[in-house]
Amino acid sequence: MSTNEFYSLKVNGVDHHVSDAWIGESLLYVLRERLGLPGSKGACEQGECGSCTVFIDGAAVCSCLVMAASAVESEIATVEGLNADGTLTDVQEAFVTEGAVQCGFCTPGLVMAVHHLLDENDSPSELEVKEALSGNICRCTGYGRIFAAVDKVVAVRKGALS
Amino acid sequence: MPVLIAHTISEATEILAENPDATILNGGTDLMVEVNFNHRHPSSVLLLRNVPQLREWSIDSSQQTITIGAGVPYAAMETGAIAAAVPALAQAARTVGSPQIRAAGTMGGNLGTCSPAGDTLPVLSALEATIHLSSQDGERIVPFGEFMVGPKKNSRLQHEIITAVTLPITGRRQGYSKVGVRNAMVISVASACFAVVDDTPRLAMGSVGPTILRAVKAEKFLTEATTNLNIISDEIAREFGQIASTEARPIDDHRSTAQYRAHAIKVLASRLAVRGTAS
Ligand SMILES: Cc1cc2nc3c(=O)[nH]c(=O)nc-3n(C[C@H](O)[C@H](O)[C@H](O)COP(=O)(O)OP(=O)(O)OC[C@H]3O[C@@H](n4cnc5c(N)ncnc54)[C@H](O)[C@@H]3O)c2cc1C
Ligand code: FES
Ligand code: FES
């Protein structure tokens, strides 16, 4: 059994200490407002838009629905940690070249969802892509460019394109 | 306000006995929405997500049952052995929210919330599942019909945690469908689960009453109308749906109207009677 009014979170492999926090705070809030990691975006705070998607112990979940203080024993990965050296991943690169970023608000969450999908399935069907991204809302692109970016990454990873 | 983290079921019941006001947290997909919107201010929290026993499931082949831990996420029910044993549960799990919600959300949480729109609940009703509850006093096993007692009300006692659900593996036709305003990320406007158990047809209806309703008249009609539940004619299926819709007790609310909900039940019930898949 453990309690945690002062607690630490392991984010992208680094321990971060949180103190004087209200324990009902969401992980999204703590990442952005207390730990200086504003990559995860907040729009709905009710699990509907996916812009706050992070990985908790490898599962892609909405950080707005994770009680931050409950994640002390978990490995948390955010969009900031995708490439340790801060360069763009192949997914981020494809989002840029395929025009999948307009206002960009949905992008971090979508990038996380796409990485998660392609880690589990290196050649998803169109339906599998749509299903995997169904929890991420984009109000700008109409999704066509996002699907094109996914196709691009799949092709590049297979060596068909460079 | 601390978060108390349990790692075993006995640790969880001990924490709850010592902290009777603690709010139980599993996937957080219901609870955190309420916390974020200031509808709930828990004074202390008992986290169950790190109890491995609650994330296990097992098949008892002599009894032909499957017992699924309250902390198994929906994502683990969508395909694989659980889906093969209880196809209707997998169909229900696949309709919940989005991949992110299904990675976090659990049946324990669906039962804890006990919304008439909870997608696993019609499946538990039709298959007459039993709910396992644990406390310092021991284990209690409650049939689903006695567990859900009203909208967002269940018979769990304050010091009990929901540990698992046991369902029969029927090897017969079963299916779950729901109607909502779109395909992904939608709370049901009406839902139904059809299953053949012990050679009798069962139909449970969600979002059309204060609890999950069983369509007993429709079930009786179908038992008398056919000798082979594997082959149901379209005409009998239509009549079955018609009767079921008269047993629904829907209301008008922000999601739909009572009239549309009754119509949806008619269509869902008649389709499920013809289409269900065998486990
Ligand atoms: C965007 C979104 C979409 C959704 N879509 C759907 C949908 O399509 N269909 C649907 O049915 N639901 C849906 N939900 C609701 C929710 O995901 C489900 O009810 C889910 O099953 C809750 O599980 P959880 O583990 O996240 O519960 P939590 O939020 O952790 O807990 C929910 C409640 O149950 C109690 N509880 C949890 N576990 C236990 C336990 N083991 N013992 C005793 N009490 C317990 C908690 O105290 C709390 O009151 C949606 C939610 C969101 C945010
Ligand atoms: S902010 Fe978390 S899903 Fe919208
Ligand atoms: S690019 Fe604007 S919301 Fe997706």
Which short descriptors sum up this protein?
heterodimer; A: 162 residues; alpha+beta; Ubiquitin-like (UB roll); DNA polymerase, domain 1; 2 domains; 5-stranded mixed beta sheet; B: 279 residues; Uridine Diphospho-n-acetylenolpyruvylglucosamine Reductase, domain 3; 5-stranded antiparallel beta sheet; 11 helices; 15 strands; binds flavin-adenine dinucleotide; binds FE2/S2 (inorganic) cluster
Task: Provide a descriptive summary of the structure in words.
- The complex is a heterodimer of chains A (162) and B (279).
- By secondary structure, chain A is α+β, with helices and mostly antiparallel strands.
- Chain A folds into two domains: 7-79, Ubiquitin-like (UB roll) (Roll), CATH 3.10.20.30; 90-157, [2Fe-2S]-binding domain (DNA polymerase, domain 1, Orthogonal Bundle).
- Chain A contains five helices and five strands; from the N terminus they run ββαβββαααα.
- A five-stranded mixed sheet of chain A has the order 2-1-5-3-4, with helices on both faces.
- In chain A, helix 2 crosses helix 5.
- The mean pLDDT of chain A is 94.
- With 279 residues, chain B is of the alpha+beta class.
- Helix content of chain B is 34%, strand content 25%.
- In chain B, 54% of the residues are buried.
Radius of gyration over C-alpha positions of chain A, nearest whole angstrom: 16 Å
Q: What is the CATH top level name of the largest domain in chain B? A: Alpha Beta
Low-confidence stretches of chain B: none
Q: Tally the beta strands of chain B.
A: 15
**Fold-level CATH name of the largest domain in chain B:** Uridine Diphospho-n-acetylenolpyruvylglucosamine Reductase, domain 3
